[in-house]
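Hey L., structure's done. Input below.
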Amino acid sequence: MNATTSTKIALVTGAGSGIGRAVALGLLSDGWNVVLAGRRAEPLQALAAEAQARDQAALAVPTDVTSPDSVEALFATIERSFGRLDLLFNNAGVNAPAVAMDELPLEKWFDVLNTNVTGVYLCARAAFGLMRRQSPQGGRIINNGSISAHTPRPFTAPYTASKHAVSGLTKALALDGRAFNIVASQIDIGNALTELSERMTRGVLQANGTVAPEPMMDAKHVADAVRQIAAMPLQANVLNMTLMASTMPYVGRG
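Output:
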């Protein structure tokens, strides 16, 4: 699969479901060639087939973002197939059980940090390198943050720490990319309805100890926001965006 010089190339990690899938579909509808990365091959291949049935260009590449070798192979495939990368939506992430931190197995801590921080870094690092050496030089990296990049929910120390780290990485990328026409953004999402977040409609632990259902928004709104940022020229950037269900308990949380 080779792109024409006018075709934009995007990579979406965690593309097999949820927000990643919604964003991939949105970019495909805008005419991007989209590389679909994720740990599970089946949903990636199903999404690629769905896109190809609509004459859209999608390439499924099963990838473990926590593995340097797997990420290296992903970017080698992108460079071999398209010669460049214009957009990375750094979306793959995991959570941990909501329990007191002294009850959380340490492997869960490492799993969250390895995926949400090291995985984001490995993909950003590889994208930075490709965007730096390609011609024309430059590109855009959008990191999926979270409301938890600003304030925690109860018993979410690993996830909250990981998303605060993503905020620092995004700012570092935005600074270090200046010389190479590489721009970085972060979109902090609150209560987008996906297969994983559907449970929140039935009740979520609140800061006062109660459990209450929370309002949700369609994941399509996240896709639309990413599409808006992706469509901007590299001379302009949205460094940080908070996108949330309007009445969720964030403003005034606690």
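The CA atoms of residues 11 and 35 lie 5 Å apart. The two ends are 51 Å apart (CA to CA).

-- N.
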